[in-house]
Amino acid sequence: MSRKMVTIDGNQACTHVAYATSEVITIYPITPSSPMAAEADAKATAKQKNIWGSIPVISQMQSEGGVAGSLHGSLATGALCTTFTASQGLLLMLPNMYKLAGELTPTVFHVTARSLACQGLSIFGDHGDVMSARQTGWAQLCSQNVQEAQDMALISTQATLASRIPFLHFFDGFRTSHEIQKMEQLTNEDMLEMIDEKLITAHRERALTPDRPSMSGTAQNPDVYFTGRETVNKYYNAIPGIVQETMDKFAALTGRQYNLFDYYGAPDATDVVVIMGSGAETVAATIDHLVADGRKVGMVIVRLFRPFDMKAMVNALPSSVERLTVLDRCKEPGAPGDPLYLDVRAAIGEAAEANPTMFMPLVLAGRYGLGSAEFSPAMVKAVYDNMVSMAPKNHFCVGPNDDVTHTSLSYDKSYNIEGDDVYRAMFYGLGSDGTVGANKNTIKIIGTETDNSAQGYFVYDSKKSGSMTVSHLRFGENQVVAPYLINKASFVACHNFTFLNSYDMLANLEDGGTFLLTTTLDKDSVWNELPAKVQQQLIDKNAKFYIIDALKLGIAIGLGARINMIMQTAFFLISGILKKDEAIDAIKTAIKKTYGKKGDKIVNMNYDAVDGAVNNIVEVTLPDNITGHELPETVPAEAPEFVKQVTAKMIEGKGDQIKVSEMPADGRWPTATTQWEKRNIAVNVPEWSPETCIQCGKCSLVCPHGCIRIKVATEDALKTAGANDTFKTADANGKEFKGSKFTVQISSADCAGCTLCSTACPARKKDAEGNKTDESALKMIPNTDAVLKESQANWKTFMALPEMANASINPATVKGSSSSDPCSSSPVPVQAVARPRTSNWLLSCSVTG
Amino acid sequence: MSRKMVTIDGNQACTHVAYATSEVITIYPITPSSPMAAEADAKATAKQKNIWGSIPVISQMQSEGGVAGSLHGSLATGALCTTFTASQGLLLMLPNMYKLAGELTPTVFHVTARSLACQGLSIFGDHGDVMSARQTGWAQLCSQNVQEAQDMALISTQATLASRIPFLHFFDGFRTSHEIQKMEQLTNEDMLEMIDEKLITAHRERALTPDRPSMSGTAQNPDVYFTGRETVNKYYNAIPGIVQETMDKFAALTGRQYNLFDYYGAPDATDVVVIMGSGAETVAATIDHLVADGRKVGMVIVRLFRPFDMKAMVNALPSSVERLTVLDRCKEPGAPGDPLYLDVRAAIGEAAEANPTMFMPLVLAGRYGLGSAEFSPAMVKAVYDNMVSMAPKNHFCVGPNDDVTHTSLSYDKSYNIEGDDVYRAMFYGLGSDGTVGANKNTIKIIGTETDNSAQGYFVYDSKKSGSMTVSHLRFGENQVVAPYLINKASFVACHNFTFLNSYDMLANLEDGGTFLLTTTLDKDSVWNELPAKVQQQLIDKNAKFYIIDALKLGIAIGLGARINMIMQTAFFLISGILKKDEAIDAIKTAIKKTYGKKGDKIVNMNYDAVDGAVNNIVEVTLPDNITGHELPETVPAEAPEFVKQVTAKMIEGKGDQIKVSEMPADGRWPTATTQWEKRNIAVNVPEWSPETCIQCGKCSLVCPHGCIRIKVATEDALKTAGANDTFKTADANGKEFKGSKFTVQISSADCAGCTLCSTACPARKKDAEGNKTDESALKMIPNTDAVLKESQANWKTFMALPEMANASINPATVKGSSSSDPCSSSPVPVQAVARPRTSNWLLSCSVTG
Prior knowledge:
The structure is a homodimer.
Chain A: E1 5-9, H1 10-20, E2 24-27, H2 34-45, E3 57-60, H3 64-76, E4 81-85, H4 87-102, E5 108-113, H5 128-131, E6 139-142, H6 146-163, E7 167-172, E8 180-184, H7 188-194, H8 197-205, E9 214-215, H9 225-230, H10 233-254, E10 261-265, E11 271-275, H11 279-292, E12 297-302, E13 304-306, H12 310-316, E14 323-328, H13 339-354, E15 362-368, H14 377-387, E16 396-398, E17 408-409, E18 422-430, H15 435-449, E19 453-459, E20 468-476, E21 489-494, H16 499-502, E22 509-518, H17 526-529, H18 532-540, E23 544-548, H19 550-557, H20 564-575, H21 580-595, H22 600-616, E24 618-620, H23 641-651, E25 669-670, E26 684-688, H24 698-702, E27 708-713, H25 715-721, E28 730-731, E29 741-746, H26 756-760, E30 778-782, H27 785-800, H28 830-833, H29 840-846
Parallel strand pairs in A: 2-3, 2-4, 4-5, 5-7, 6-7, 11-12, 11-14, 14-15, 15-16, 16-17, 18-21, 21-22, 22-23
Antiparallel strand pairs in A: 1-8, 6-13, 8-19, 10-12, 18-20, 19-20, 23-24, 26-30, 27-29, 28-29
């Protein structure tokens, strides 16, 4: 069976092998490894078989500790087992991992290397977790891209059976686990060929069974424990040879040759980086450029990190080496150096002792990419430049701006190595608007339907739904080797008009590049609605500017807000990646494939979307005059200094510009800061009806965003605060409020449009005949500019009203309330109340009712 | 208040400070740290106050994970918190430890460094656990003896408050935690003086409180996480200075000066060891000897392991150094070297780069003392000899005999550095016979009542109750610095006569030393009952030989088997450590102190024990003829090869002679091997009454040791197997056994005398009138030599009887059984059934009833 080219992400690539070569897969989901567990589960549910024809047993445990424990048991019965994990999840497995290694148990754990929670939690990638397992006695094999996430999974699986030492196979979380790449998929025959069945039989024969009883897990006293520990030496000594042999066999089968350590770069390099994981690809791409410029630079890629074969590492170095920089993707504060550095330092030291005539290179240590921090060619160049500088920095970091202990390397942000052989596109979407899904489709179409190599990477923030997503897509005839974000795009698409006020998305557009904007405005009116800065950028960059009213088109076709097919088509047509007809054919083929099962109606609607897009793309000729508005302040001038200096940068997407001195060292942040981030993401917002309201206060109680609040105020207070006609009030209920006014105000800019207030409201509007309707006192209406502006003005008035600290609503006095205890018959969904969005919740509570 | 000299163990020394300087102590017991948790709990129960006058809150959690989590919470509220742990318990704390460090939280965890379970579990000491925490960002401070376990606890407590970085204070499990030493106890005033209250106020002010809200535990995205991690640099940079400053202040207060790294040895040493923990004391004592012999040797003691101050470490080296050996007390298979080695290698490498004219010493790595494996002066000498050998071994181990990968150093077992300034005594007792307790008293008397320095260390094996204990006691006018076992004893006491057949306890007796034996034999008959080898050793060593019938004396006084006071007195009188009258006074004073609360009767009985001992010590003049018996084989000739080669050595107490090639590499052991270890420890054993027995089989079912078994056999079979008159049988019940005989046999040598069989037996003997008595069919009788021999002969006959695989007892046919289901009305204690002692249980079940 010939091999297929597939366009998938690192998790899928790894699971392809992990599932096919396992019998028991015990799982507990943790980001970014969860998709592997989910996919394995889905395959088993679909009754997909492993390469030996059986369906693996998939079990989800109560925690990663349970996963490690149950795998220990399954492995002891002679089963072939695996799991997937990351971060603190891996830490929970450590106690069992020592035992699994000590008992010479073959298994592979696939880890999407992720940060550990320290001053804050990070779901993103670095080597903090896998390094915390380096003392367990596991072998550790690293993949640096999607192809390798598959290949090394297989190499690990065979090597663990051959060596009896468990393998931790890892690749960079998000950067590799979630990057979509076109790659060659191994066949079942490949896997059967690679895995030696005799070794499986041997594993089975070691199983704990009453038929051949043996005893495991004993207590060993001081007389024998140490001797017992020294028995394993020969097994560890054998691993490098076993892994290299397996890699060689794999190369003979697939043509892809890996080595324990691979050298890349100038054969006469004087300056060499040692690195592991996806960062090696960025270094490789940068080396190509630097070598072309005459620089003598190179790199040693670490694949087998444990056991660390010191001699193999030194042998991988060119004899010309004068300076080494070891780059670690983790930080171990208090250590004399980060882990890979310490290993390389020992290797160099021992090599020099073994060969006194050897020139001992200078060895430097650096740290990069923690928590998926960007690691770009510009940073790589800075690392090489540091080596040849007069006073090279040691134990540096590259990325952060360390203005306190001055450990950071400075780098030239404008340095760019990306050439014209690759097409680069960036798409700015709103979380859950379909942009990411559409781009995944695009990547797959190009990967599948053309000879192009393809790459997709997707940046979300932790707010997920409702915040911005940025899709980074690259295509080209040559292999795309660029595990870093695009900063010079041929194409930028904005799927949400309001982003133009918030994010500097044209900064990355290259000269003569294309900008596609979704807007309800037409080509004549759109220009004047753009911010002046955007207008200037379009003109300066000599951009091609297209618009499309995807929302209107989607509604017309019947797809509603699902505009992904429209935007995808627009991209294909404008970019010219494929010829127009080819593109339409390819998209339609993909539609048939994706939606065929759902019936002709869905397929045809999507066909209509494609055809509609073709007819609705409008090119806007750039005027040469700047007519737009100034960009609004990210946070208002009255915000606290910390918010203006730190929080605002994060809101703008420029968090990487925050200096070390500005960040809280202990992870302690000021509270009540979300009030300064006005996201204005609601499509519909509540409108209060004073006539219908029974003044129970549930709307304010239930709002998870603290953006619907109530107060009672005197007429005088209202006047002083500047309440105008649009500021709605009602006569306050209750004797204690006699003569005062009651008001409910909504901050539309903070509202997420969740409708909880409207649903929780127990009041019902009466119709002309006095009969109750379905409408509550809070009706959802479109969040127009006019609504927003009115809301902002009235919110300001509301906040200026005095707090009435000693007053509170007496539930017994609430008109229409059926009980003196508002909770007893409350329609309020409790889970909503239990999920306050950070500090605004407290603020909301402090406002008197 | 002036300071007291106290004679306590490392756990007590540490708890003295940990308790006095804490407000919240959350605990979960794990060996060997449990005594600290227990003592803290006992102090709180006794309402003992901390130095600020409040009683710490002690809470036991559900696991070490819960301890770390709850401490995280308590610390966040501004409390001063601590805990105690070790081994896999520490591993469960790792996820929280990253967060505690990341959030700059001052706390001290006190760890009795212990092995991690790998190929087998070990409850004993090495640095495997603390090394697995070295990447968490905690500071790590190491104590090497009992005095330091107290001193460093205080230094850590102040340093964590000053630096805001949590401290892991550790000392060697068992070797330091359970060693009793005379030391100077800090006063409350000392602790108040050392701890800066301003820092406590600062910690309180950082507490999470709604009065000054701040937010902790946030998620950080790739834009800021890395920058957040770099904020901590300045805190770590400050720690070495803070710790040194604290040590200096401590020195001014107490006169004990510690440094981050301390150098010990010849000022012009060429060969230097780098080491951490109790092993440093063995190295120091050996250095004294080697330097006296003209060797240029020295040592760097590591105290502050994290942060590892590379410059301070290099500065501690004499400029004359040519060779370094870094000794690690842990093994990280697959690493290029063990952790301390990697750190020192980096320090030397960076120092050489900083100063190109520096002579770069050869750096070697070695491993010692895993799982409390002995680390003796002979081994230290081997380490120094290795450095100056023609081809020094690197990455060696010292202790095991690695005949597979040849990593071990050979050493001269007869090398001994102990001088005459110290009195050394060894006591062989049976677990739970009071020997250890008596020796702890002895140490305390000497420590308290004399100016002598004193040390006690106690070796148990994992069988605990019923197995051998060896107490190692040293006293002297000079400080005792010898954290290793005695191999040249002035005094050896044997508290159990049967040990003479099993253990070579006179091997360690020095020439002219004293041997004290508890025996019921008198001075005329005892000689002939000794094994010939023991006789020869006594003669060859020109030993003084004393006996005492402590058991008879104990019974006579009313103390029964509690012979500890008798043996203690005998030791004092024979050894001459104190003058006779002084000794008796001191012991009696101690008795008054210990038992005073229990009333005069108890005190007087113990006084009688002292006086009785004085009168019952008998010196035996050594005959010059060898009349004794040959030592019995440890295991019989028919035992499997593995048992003879490996298990037998462990039974003899010579497990350290087992070679690497002989040990199972994966911790898998053959089953059914306990049958070859005949311990013969039962005082009373069951005797079967065929007349009373109802043949229900419950005795065999309930025996946890598989040493009471039943069979049905024909008369022919009995004859063939060689059954004689002493082989009791009864006519078998049940139609299917008609004409056959039923027998119950007991292996007295395997019996533990637990009485479960006797209790479980439902049958009752009838008296002459035919009335039921209280006696069951299994009566406990003294386990005399005659009983043993008869049992052994009959057991052999029994085992030769054919298995009747298809026959089984039908409960319905059992005479006197009230139910067809023997479980329904069974008097068998179920927990006994549920606790089979390893494999003999299976054997027991396979025998047909």
